[in-house]
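User: Can you fold this complex?
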Amino acid sequence: MKFVQRRERPEPETMIPLINVVFLLLIFFMIAGAIAKAPPFEWQAPDSRSESPPGRSALVVHVAADGRLALNGEPAKLDALASAVAGRADSAAPVQIKADAQVAARRVMAVMAHLRDAGVEKIRLFTRKRGGG
Amino acid sequence: LQFTRPRKRRALVSLTPLIDVVFILLVFFMLVSQFADWRTIRLDAPTEAGDGASLRGAVLVRLHAGGLDVNGRAVASGRLERHLRRALGEGGPARVLVQPGEGVSLQRAVRVLDIATAAGAGDVKLLEGRR
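Assistant: Here's the predicted assembly.
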C-alpha cells in the first residue's frame, strides 16, 4: 500500500521577506498615523487658506452639521459643556473645535461663548487646506 | 560515498501565528490612522457686542443669509477683499470683526475670515450678534 506523499510545506525562509515588509508597514502606520477620538457622528471640516498647524490638546469639541456636540468623543449638551470643561481646562493649552462646515456659525459661536464662560481663552478651529494647494 | 546531510534547523516557534497577529495589527492601524492635512484658525473667545473698547476703530463685516455688508454698506462677496483693503488702508487699526447672522454656515464665516486675513487684517475676530 502506498500513500501519496504529502507535499512539503514551503520553506519558512521564503516567508521572512514578507514578514519584514509587513513589519515595516506596521511601524510606518503606527508612527505616521494619528489615532483620533472619533465623535459619534460624521463631520467635514471647512476649507480654509490658513496655514497654522494644529497643536496638541487634551480637549476637543466636535460639532455636527445638525448642531450636536461631543466632548472628546463623548456626546455632550451645550449647557453641560462649561461644567465639563471647567475642571479640565488648562489655560496654556488651547481647546480644539472640530466643527462641520455646514453647521450654523452661530452654533459654533455659542460653543465658544460657553467655553469662554468655563475660563478657556485659546480656541483653535480645525480646517482643511483648500484644494491641495 | 555518503555525506552527512546538514541537519535542518527547526524553528523554535512557528511563524504563522506571528504573521497573523502582525497582519491584524497592520489592518487595525491602517483603518484607525488619519492622514488628513489639518490646519487651524486661531479663534480666541468671541467678543461680545457691547464690549465697547474692543470695537472702536474696527471694520465690521456682517454676514446675512443673503449677503454681507462692511460697516453697514452692502458689498458683493466677490469684492469683499478689495473693500477690506481699502477700509484697512486708511491708517486705522487693522482689526476686522466678523458677525455671522442667522442661517450663515461655518464655511461661509471661515471664508470671510480667510479673506480678511488676506486683505491684511492683523486681528480678525468673530463677533457675537444679538440673540
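The first helix of chain B runs from residue 15 to 32. Chain B touches chain A through 46 residues (CB under 8 Å).
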